């Protein structure tokens, strides 16, 4: 989930002569008096998007790699996790874009003179594709969660992995088409300077093309289309759908005693996604305020100190928003935490690899669910298993314990076999077998 990489015209103009940063930063280190307005902006940009930004970027890249490693595990396959995996990939792209477009120019004058012009001309449009994709992927999985929670009868046909992949592909394609004209806004130019002794120094810079400097293009595409497609429509959609989701979560919490395992996990997923959307919307606030003000009177915005500081803040929020998602998954995603610990923290877990099962109970209304206490080491875990006549005890144990390769005990086999062949077999009315039920169960985050 992301905010926006916004290299304003003022920032790009200053970037064309990056000695401006070097000279001002040197002046700041030597001058103990109160800094001027330009010096204050330079100081904020250097420490916020430079020093702090590069640390947050590498933490975010590492966190998103861990996120992808967890979400692509076999037990984590679901339509929601498809969206979150794609979001993590595009978040990494946004972080890399921020590194080359905003952070490195603040830290290296040599980079700004040699590589930065090519980055602006050819890589900046790809950064805009990334930000557009992350915004609409966030909207997409919010719509999917709304359907799953508020229209559960439609969820079985609409909230599938295949549909999620199609949506991700279409969002990425449309984002690329929408930002295609960005590749024609800047071009590379070479500048020759005659030095002492008739020596020539050739420097590389960039400048706006006729399209990039066209007033009608900037007013229609950059201001109004950008404002509505990147701010008004997605934020309004997220605000409305999030309101419905929060109300649904509150209703489910009032009925917590009557919730089964599946409903509890679905509720956990909804809470996690609500937290993602709330953080996303908070990170949009600086960019939203700045872009609205910029569309009203950009001359004042470009030359006023508070607005220049806000411009630096909105760029930092891009980095922060792309980094914080992994922490939110760990904080609110119960199954994400379990898979993460099992995948990366095995050496820190002192537990017995064998599983023992004991105790059974049947749901009074339908007699469909078999509850088994699973003792893993010293920590008991409870799970609900739905059985039917065409499932074996080996399949049940393997499905619920995919990482355990020990054979179940004879007592466990006998217990499950008795249930399969017992008097409750005729009462099972569910058309789906246990394999599809448990596959659906594993979709829960």
UniProtKB/TrEMBL annotation:
TM annotation in the entry: 46-71, 83-102, 122-143, 155-178, 221-248, 269-293, 313-332
Domain G-protein coupled receptors family 1 profile span(s) in chain numbering: 63-329
Keyword presence, Transit peptide: no
Alphabetical UniProt keywords: Membrane, Transmembrane, Transmembrane helix
Keyword Metal-binding: no
Signal peptide: none
Name of the protein in question: G-protein coupled receptors family 1 profile domain-containing protein
Any Gene Ontology CC annotation: membrane
Localization (cell): Membrane
Native source organism of the sequence: Sinanodonta woodiana
